[in-house]
């Protein structure tokens, strides 16, 4: 069904792999459209309880494929980067945000430019020790986009975000973990196994509650305390009526591990 990504579902986990390894998985319009379609499919599929986003080959994603943007080679008319963002990247970022299932970025290699932004837009990031981020926009005279100006300061603070965006320097996996860009770093040899284990763990948790956590925390960034308290009450009312909540209470009373179904 897809030409630029791979998509498969197994044991509650949808694995979406950006599959242009010869181009370091750089984005094209087709790839972005296919990723949005796959995210929508995963969001609607009750069998999917976690999504893991990966890159084929040596890279996670090297950013925009300049050959896919008319005029980007400076030989033609300058491309309208704003239109490219509005038509391609912004819908992808919003789909990542609005998919109320946990999304893990498994960063195996370089994540540069929009590739870094996409990783930051995911809920969790696990990195290989050999992976690294590059906020590369400034190196070609551009501004961080695809949510880069939104997620980066929220993850590392304004001062560090400005430093990373202004210098465009490489951020190693260890440094990414130290400053809060990565949730976990593991050896290159164990990377695939550990990323799979994290996704499998998330897939066994109460999916509806996780979706509500994701929604409420993001809303809380843009609301005052009183509004956040009210939204927590609203979300808790929904969560309190799920089968998984009832299972959690029953398992606690019976002193056994809960078996969540995601509903």
From TrEMBL:
Domain of life, per lineage: Bacteria
Query: From which residue to which does any coiled coil extend?
Result: none
Q: Which Pfam families match?
A: ECH_1
SUPFAM superfamilies xrefs:
ClpP/crotonase (SSF52096)
Q: Which family does it belong to?
A: Belongs to the enoyl-CoA hydratase/isomerase family.
Name the record gives this protein: Enoyl-CoA hydratase-related protein
């Amino acid at each position: 069904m897809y030409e630029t990504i791979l998509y498969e579902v197994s044991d509650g986990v949808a694995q979406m792999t950006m599959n242009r390894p010869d181009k370091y998985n750089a984005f094209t319009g087709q790839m972005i459209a296919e990723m949005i379609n796959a995210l929508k499919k995963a969001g609607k599929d009750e069998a999917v309880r976690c999504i893991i986003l990966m890159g084929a080959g040596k890279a996670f994603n090297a950013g925009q494929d300049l050959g896919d943007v008319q005029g980007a080679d400076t030989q033609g008319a300058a491309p309208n980067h704003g239109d490219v963002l509005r038509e391609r990247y912004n819908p992808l970022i919003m789909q990542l945000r609005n998919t109320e299932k946990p999304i893990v970025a498994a960063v195996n290699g370089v994540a540069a430019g929009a590739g870094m932004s996409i990783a930051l837009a995911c809920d969790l990031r696990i990195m290989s020790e050999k992976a690294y981020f590059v906020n590369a926009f400034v190196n070609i005279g551009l501004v961080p986009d695809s949510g880069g100006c939104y997620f980066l300061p929220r993850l590392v603070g304004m001062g560090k975000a400005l430093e990373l965006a202004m210098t465009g320097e490489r951020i190693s996996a260890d440094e990414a973990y130290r400053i809060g860009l990565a949730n976990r770093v593991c050896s290159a040899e164990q990377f695939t196994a550990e990323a799979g284990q994290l996704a499998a763990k998330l897939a066994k948790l109460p999916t509806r509650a996780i979706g509500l956590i994701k929604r409420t925390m993001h809303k809380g960034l843009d609301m005052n305390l009183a509004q956040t308290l009210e939204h927590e009450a609203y979300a808790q009312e929904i969560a309190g009526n799920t089968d998984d909540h009832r299972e959690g209470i029953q398992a606690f009373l019976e002193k056994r591990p809960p078996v969540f179904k995601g509903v």
